[in-house]
Amino acid sequence: MDLSVSAEEAAFRQELRQFIAENLTPELKHGSELSHKEASVRWHRILAARGWGAPQWPREFGGQGWSASQFYIFEEEQAIAGCPAISPFATKMVGPVIMHFGTKEQQDFWLPKASGGEHYWCQGYSEPGSGSDLAALQTKAVRDGDHYVVNGMKIWTSYAHLADWMFALVRTSSAGKTQEGITVLLIDMKTPGISTRPLITIDGTHILNEVRFEDVRVPAFNRIGEENKGWSYAKFLLGNERALIAQVAASTNMVKRLKDYARVERQNGASLLEDLSFRHRLAEVEIELEALRITNQRVLYDNSSGTAGNGGAILKSKGTFVSQALAELLSELVGFYGAPWIKEDLLHGRNEPWPGPAHAKGAVSWYMRTRANTIEGGTEEIQKNVIAKQVLAL
Ligand SMILES: Cc1cc2nc3c(=O)[nH]c(=O)nc-3n(C[C@H](O)[C@H](O)[C@H](O)COP(=O)(O)OP(=O)(O)OC[C@H]3O[C@@H](n4cnc5c(N)ncnc54)[C@H](O)[C@@H]3O)c2cc1C
Question: Structurally, what CATH architecture does the domain formed by 245-391 represent?
Fold first, then answer.
């Protein structure tokens, strides 16, 4: 693996910068008046119009067939410029599953809408009583002619209240091991019998939901792969989900911003960047981030199977550590100016200045949000178990 930057890569970065400069309106930038979904979908459609809706996908599925390093640069440039984050559910999670395990008809129906930013997806895996022990899930799907009838409940479903579609794990058999009776269904969220209830998190935002299914009829066409074989497709997807919680591009942007802020933040007559203790702590995180960046590229270069697989557990674990350490440093840097909780400001933007430096806005809210990285996509303990058993064969 060659990590040096080629002339082509430098030119590619330049092309991206120019595209972003020409298309990222102030309204679309972080902290604008738009909701998270509106900003994300609008930006996704702008990228899609340029052919970059899912550029990492193979050309036969509407992508550009970009290499891992090209896609990495693409994401890094967007993070640095403050572009809205594209929801990963469509292009990084369900899209690759449909590509690998779906039929041609399913690919033709769902993939263009996933890469074009037309469908907004959510993930229906977790249930009360089945999070870490995901295979214990109980939401039932019973075949009735050319439909499945779904009954049960999902929980912690991010963006379910905004989603057009859910990729869900359902139980189609109770015979044998729990893993053997699971099926993947793609469910239209407008189907009668689906209801969502908000779960408000400690940072005051509504992202998570409880989703109930009462006699929800799902066409059998929407089943991915074979009935009762969903566990292997679910694990394929989890490998990719964990890899993306590494958030290398976002953390790189945060390190840069922290240095900028520390340059202007003054303590005892000197800038915080001159404070040895702060410098050491920032340098330690930066070294961890550099190691994560290289591991990320290694895992993605090896990605011939279409999933980061167990490598995703390493990326998730280390990525969580780095994001949390950076959030902690930012909170310390801004002190009590990071603490105000102004809902309108955090969710939609507001026409009044933040009480304190602008970079303090939402710092503590973000710190609290990063705590959840330890849990979402599989807890830290579960990642350590996967690394010990599957990666290190202990
Ligand atoms: C912000 C956020 C967003 C989320 N979004 C989604 C979503 O969109 N879709 C979705 O399906 N789910 C989502 N989840 C749910 C998430 O996947 C689960 O919360 C997670 O898998 C843990 O499951 P649990 O909450 O049931 O905890 P439990 O599994 O009950 O775990 C409780 C504690 O026990 C520990 N533990 C459990 N088993 C073991 C073991 N074998 N060895 C060692 N320790 C163990 C865990 O590490 C944890 O500390 C989200 C969660 C969060 C926090």
Answer: Up-down Bundle (1.20)
Instruction: Count the neighbouring beta carbons within 10 Å of the beta carbon of residue 232.
Output: 13
Helix or strand holding residue 194 (H, E): strand 194-200
Residue 348's identity, in one-letter code, is H
Assess whether the C-beta atom of 379 lies below 6 angstroms from ligand 1.
Answer: yes
State the pLDDT at residue 116: 97
Q: Which of 76, 78, 74, 82 is nearest to 30 (CA)?
A: 82
As a whole number of angstroms, the distance between CA 227 and CA 98 comes to 15
Could you give the CA distance from residue 175 to residue 143 in angstroms, rounded to a whole number?
16
H/E element holding 199? strand 194-200
Reported as a single tens digit per residue, the pLDDT across 284-330 is 999 999 999 988 888 876 666 666 678 889 999 999 999 999 999 99
User: Which residue's alpha carbon is nearest to atom 22 within ligand 1?
Assistant: 131
Start-end of CATH 1.20.140.10 domains in the chain? 245-391
pLDDT of residue 355: 78
Domain 7-86 annotated CATH 1.10.510.40: no
SS3 74: helix
CATH superfamily of 121-228: Butyryl-CoA Dehydrogenase, subunit A, domain 2 (2.40.110.10)
Structure tokens at 33: 């008046």
- Output the pLDDT for position 188: 98
Looking only at Cα atoms, what is the longest distance across the chain? Answer: 76
Q: Which of 189, 201, 375 to mutate to test the pocket of ligand 1 (most atoms within 8 A of CB)?
A: 375
